[in-house]
Amino acid sequence: MPRAGWLQRLTQGLRKTGASMATVFTGTRIDDDLYESLEAALLQADAGVKATQYLLHDLKQRVKEQKATDPAQVKALLAQALSELLQPLQQPLTIGAQQPTVIMVVGVNGAGKTTSIGKLTRHLADSGQTVLLAAADTFRAAAREQLAAWAHRNDAAAALHDARIDIVSQEGADPGAVCFDAVTAGRARGKDVVIVDTAGRLPTQLHLMEELKKIKRVTAKALDSAPHEVLLVVDGNTGQNALAQVKAFDEALGLTGLVVTKLDGTAKGGVLAAIALWGRERKGADGQPRPVPVYFIGVGEKLEDLETFDAREFAQALLG
Ligand SMILES: Nc1nc2c(ncn2[C@@H]2O[C@H](COP(=O)(O)OP(=O)(O)O)[C@@H](O)[C@H]2O)c(=O)[nH]1
Ligand SMILES: [Mg+2]
Predict the structure, then answer these.
(1) Does position 237 have pLDDT exceeding 60, yes or no?
(2) What DSSP designation does 135 have?
(3) From residue 29, how far is each of 24, 26, 74, 279 by CA, in Å?
(4) Ranges for all domains in the chain classified under CATH 3.40.50.300
(5) Residue 257 contacts by C-beta under 8 Å, 6 or more apart in sequence?
(6) How far is the CA of 50 from the centre of ligand 2 (A)?
(7) What is the pLDDT of residues 198-226, one digit of tens each?
(8) What is the pLDDT of residues 303-314, one digit of tens each?
(9) Topology of the domain comprising 3-89
(10) Ligand 1 and 130: CB distance under 6 A
């Protein structure tokens, strides 16, 4: 899909937010009323209290510095403030430093993990990477079948590069065992990427979170440096709860990236501002801020409906 078409879909998905943002700037004066309705619109957009306060403060400074007098200018300055806040989330997923690069995918039920894996596989196959999928969502037979169906849909793209999408799946097996086999097979077959699909779970289900930690440990037994990426898939419609999910999964597993799905629907989008602000406080081993990047966003249910995250475009779409 051309990038422009995708952007339209995102804007369409975020149109409610965009519409209420737009009305904030229709007045003729920059006054308390404007800032109050902006505050309400940001909260309504799921930005959360902290990110809303941050953006308002930042915006007021910009307005002062620029000596802005027209609400339209304020809107442009808000777009700047927002895209600067979101900028650190814009980082590419890099593949190839390790072979195979092992990507573990986690999240709550229905977030779009398996669908995103299907799309990501397409993205990788298109760039000539060979992919092996691990069906470590072993709770339901349907989950294995769903992953296999996505693999099959990707075969045409892979065939262009003389490759095919392999899948490792075992009925009734322990998810850790499936991962171990998958990573071992990925090494033996010289695959570029191994993607591990896991069963959905809530961060409050502690025994299930322990199981994820175990999957992670077992993966490292099959390949020392693995997993190289731990991706959390979050449904863009979950509002502020998305931030709670990010924090909890990060605490348990150490996330390396996010995929935010369903931004084509009725998502409000502001939660990315909250995730970005939280990311500033998150420190790496070197004490430097290490935000969790948004590698991709999902804008539909089809194979090609995955896009890299672009902070500026996202800010524009959000502001309508
Ligand atoms: N509109 C839309 N639907 C999506 C997107 N990503 C996933 N879905 C749908 O969300 C539902 C759950 O997806 P699934 O991948 O099975 O979730 P999982 O339980 O996390 O593996 C399915 O109906 C998908 O088609 C997206 O970006 N946009
Ligand atoms: Mg699934």
Answers:
(1) yes
(2) E
(3) 11, 9, 10, 34
(4) 101-310
(5) 91, 93, 229, 230, 231, 232, 292, 293, 294, 295
(6) 32
(7) 999 999 999 999 999 999 999 999 999 99
(8) 999 999 999 999
(9) Four Helix Bundle (Hemerythrin (Met), subunit A) (1.20.120)
(10) no
> How far is the C-alpha of 102 from the C-alpha of 95, rounded, in Å?
9
Q: Which two tokens mark 201?
A: 């779970």
The residue among 295, 290, 291, 312 whose CA lies nearest residue 260 is 295
pLDDT band at 229 (very low <50, low <70, confident <90, very high): very high
Angle of CA points 11, 13, 19, to nearest 5°: 65
In words, the CATH class of domain 101-310 is alpha beta
Nearest-atom number in ligand 1 for the CA of 108 is 20
- Which of these, 105, 155, 97, 93, lies nearest to 130 by C-alpha position? 155
Cα 196 from Cα 100, distance rounded (Å): 12
Range(s) within the chain of domains with CATH label 1.20.120.140: 3-89
Residue 264: CB within 6 Å of ligand 1?
Answer: yes
Cβ of 237 closer than 6 Å to ligand 1, yes or no, is: no
**CB of 111 closer than 6 A to ligand 1?**
yes
Encoded amino acid at 104, one letter: M
